[in-house]
TrEMBL record:
Name of the protein in question: Mannose receptor, C type 2
Pfam family, one: Lectin_C
UniProt keyword annotation of Transit peptide present: no
PROSITE patterns: C_TYPE_LECTIN_2 (PS50041)
Origin organism lineage: Eukaryota, Metazoa, Spiralia, Lophotrochozoa, Mollusca
Gene3D superfamilies for the chain: Mannose-Binding Protein A, subunit A, Tie2 ligand-binding domain superfamily
Superkingdom of the source species: Eukaryota
Boundaries of every C-type lectin domain copy: 1-84
Organism of derivation: Elysia marginata
Keywords on record: Receptor
Length: 256
């Protein structure tokens, strides 16, 4: 996450999601679904039913700079929330963001509400509180909520916070497929970019989702490589050859 967005990630920021155990205490389910959870991302020591009536669940960032951990809380607590709805066409309605992970449309609401108030608001817009079925969706919501705070008037409003992205560079689809209101890429990232906003790979990384590391034998003080191919930008350190500087001059291959 770049410094611009990191500045907006406030501490103790929480959002209601659809998970709850209001029907049977201790049996958490998504909204009214009966199926047991196939994916969980509880914070350490959670759920703890601290108030003995903690039947609703938030995703929050008390355990890190990005929203990833889940905690149970009293359903009457007032916090922000995330709505989710299915697409009715290839695009989401104005003010909603397409998740390339789930194929659903998402929207942040920054007016603090109880869990039931939040769910009612979602239902009034043909949606429900967000459901999280895997790490990809959990991370996507983390990136989405990091955009909250860049409002045009500084006031809490029941609408999506806007970034007004000028282009879609780094996004799949020839750099044209992104939500210019939130900055999020609809289809994922080109090779050499990562995250929901498809930012360029950090130093010394490259490849799909920046999952590979540049060779330790790249030349130059930064040991930088091309974010797409991994080719060393400034040649090789002494004793190494090749585009990616993986082999010694004698032809031996070295691990990197």
């Amino acid at each position: 996450m770049n410094n611009f967005l990191a500045d907006f990630v406030a501490s103790n920021k929480s959002y209601w999601i659809g998970l709850n155990d209001r029907k049977v205490d201790g049996q958490f389910r998504w909204l009214d679904f009966e199926d047991e959870l196939s994916y969980e991302r509880w914070a350490q020591g959670e759920p703890n039913n601290k108030s003995r009536d903690d039947n609703c669940v938030q995703i929050n960032n008390n355990w890190g700079r990005k929203l990833k951990a889940w905690t149970d809380d009293n359903c009457f607590a007032k916090v922000k929330f995330i709505c989710e709805r299915y697409q009715e066409s290839t695009l989401c309605p104005v003010g909603w963001t397409l998740s390339y992970v789930s194929g659903t449309c998402l929207k942040l609401y920054v007016t603090e509400s109880s869990w039931q108030e939040a769910e009612t608001t979602c239902e009034n817009h043909g949606a429900s509180l967000a459901m999280i079925q895997n790490d990809g969706m959990n991370n996507f919501l983390s990136d989405l909520t990091a955009t909250e705070g860049n409002s045009t008037d500084g006031q809490d409003r029941e609408e999506e916070i806007l970034i007004y992205r000028k282009d879609c560079s780094g996004c799949l689809g020839n750099g044209h497929v992104c939500d210019t209101r939130t900055g999020l890429c609809h289809l994922g990232c080109e090779v050499g970019y990562h995250g929901a906003l498809c930012e360029a790979c950090p130093n010394n990384t490259f490849g799909a989702n920046c999952s590979r590391k540049c060779s330790d034998h790249c030349g130059g003080s930064t040991k930088a490589c091309n974010v797409t191919t991994g080719e060393c930008l400034y040649g090789c350190a002494d004793g190494f050859v090749g585009d990616m500087c993986f082999s010694g001059k004698g032809g031996c291959l070295f691990e990197v």
